[in-house]
């Protein structure tokens, strides 16, 4: 499966940060994996313009479930597609915690994203407490079943497994834990989507960086990465994409 490397800038990036996207274009010129950068809303339009003619694509970090209307401060999937964004991250744990997003909301947003022609990157993952209690697989299974839309395919959906305790902490699950979880996710996708479940890419996210990426990409059912902190510097992010091409 062709790997996907997605950079989630979170609430980082000013107009001057476009230099990183410009540099990335040079560093990832003939990449054999798909690469998407997800800057904050304020930079999306400029970023789309900047990557034109390159192999990079641009994604957003959230969208509203409605197409338009009285939703102050929100951005719809249609608006994102309209400016040329290709992807949207949905259900990131930071949004689940800070904005009270639940699986039902993530499902609605994913449906809206697919209707608008965007590829959704739906995030799932357990907390430290849930893993310590031996419930990690059960928690992710429930998130997936409640948030993956009927009829999704590898062309419209990407799943990102991001253990909450591995985000921004430098902690990474063991290879066995990642393979076990990704196999469980693959199984649910096949149950929900039939043969289309085979082609949905399953990314790993949580403290991915250049130095650990190659080993992660060799694991079974790891089809790429959702990268936070290490996506902010073009050279580091480019090194992660290079690892995807050599592993
Ligand atoms: P870090 O790579 O900074 O751990 O963040 C992961 C993440 O949340 C990506 O969405």
UniProtKB/TrEMBL annotation:
Family, per entry: Belongs to the triosephosphate isomerase family.
Subunit organization: Homodimer.
BP GO annotations: gluconeogenesis; glyceraldehyde-3-phosphate biosynthetic process; glycerol catabolic process; glycolytic process
Cellular component annotations (GO), alphabetically ordered: cytosol
MF-aspect GO terms: triose-phosphate isomerase activity
Major subcellular site: cytoplasm
Gene source species: Rhizobium leguminosarum bv. trifolii WSM597
Biological or metabolic pathway of the protein: Carbohydrate biosynthesis; gluconeogenesis; Carbohydrate degradation; glycolysis; D-glyceraldehyde 3-phosphate from glycerone phosphate: step 1/1; Carbohydrate metabolism; erythritol degradation
Pfam annotation, one family: TIM
Protein task: Involved in the gluconeogenesis. Catalyzes stereospecifically the conversion of dihydroxyacetone phosphate (DHAP) to D-glyceraldehyde-3-phosphate (G3P).
Top-level enzyme category: isomerase
Catalyzed reactions: D-glyceraldehyde 3-phosphate = dihydroxyacetone phosphate; L-erythrulose 1-phosphate = D-erythrulose 4-phosphate
Keyword list, A-Z: Cytoplasm, Gluconeogenesis, Glycolysis, Isomerase
Compartments in which it is found: Cytoplasm
Keyword Isomerase annotated: yes
Active site, renumbered: 92, 162
Enzyme Commission number: 5.3.1.1
Record CDD domains: TIM
Protein name per its UniProtKB record: Triosephosphate isomerase
């Amino acid at each position: 499966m062709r790997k996907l490397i997605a950079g989630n800038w979170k609430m980082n990036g000013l107009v001057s940060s476009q230099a990183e996207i410009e540099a990335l274009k040079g560093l990832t010129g003939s990449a054999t994996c798909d690469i998407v950068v997800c800057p904050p809303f304020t930079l999306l339009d400029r970023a789309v313009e900047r990557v034109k003619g390159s192999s990079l694509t641009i994604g957003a970090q959230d969208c509203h479930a409605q197409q338009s209307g009285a939703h102050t401060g929100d951005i719809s999937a249609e608006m994102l597609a309209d400016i040329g964004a290709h992807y949207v991250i949905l259900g990131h744990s930071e949004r689940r915690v800070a904005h009270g997003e639940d699986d039902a909301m993530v499902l609605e947003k994913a449906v809206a994203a697919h209707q608008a022609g965007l590829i959704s990157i739906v995030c799932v993952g357990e907390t430290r407490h849930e893993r310590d209690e031996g419930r990690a697989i059960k928690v992710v299974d429930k998130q997936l079943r409640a948030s993956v839309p009927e009829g999704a395919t590898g062309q419209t959906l990407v799943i990102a497994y991001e253990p909450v305790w591995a985000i921004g902490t430098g902690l990474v699950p063991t290879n066995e834990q990642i393979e076990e979880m990704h196999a469980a996710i693959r199984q649910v996708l096949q149950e929900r989507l039939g043969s289309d479940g085979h082609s949905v890419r399953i990314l790993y996210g949580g403290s991915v960086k250049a130095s650990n990426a190659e080993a992660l990409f060799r694991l079974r059912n790891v089809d790429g990465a959702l990268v936070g902190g290490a996506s902010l510097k073009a050279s580091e992010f480019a090194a992660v994409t290079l690892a995807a091409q050599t592993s």
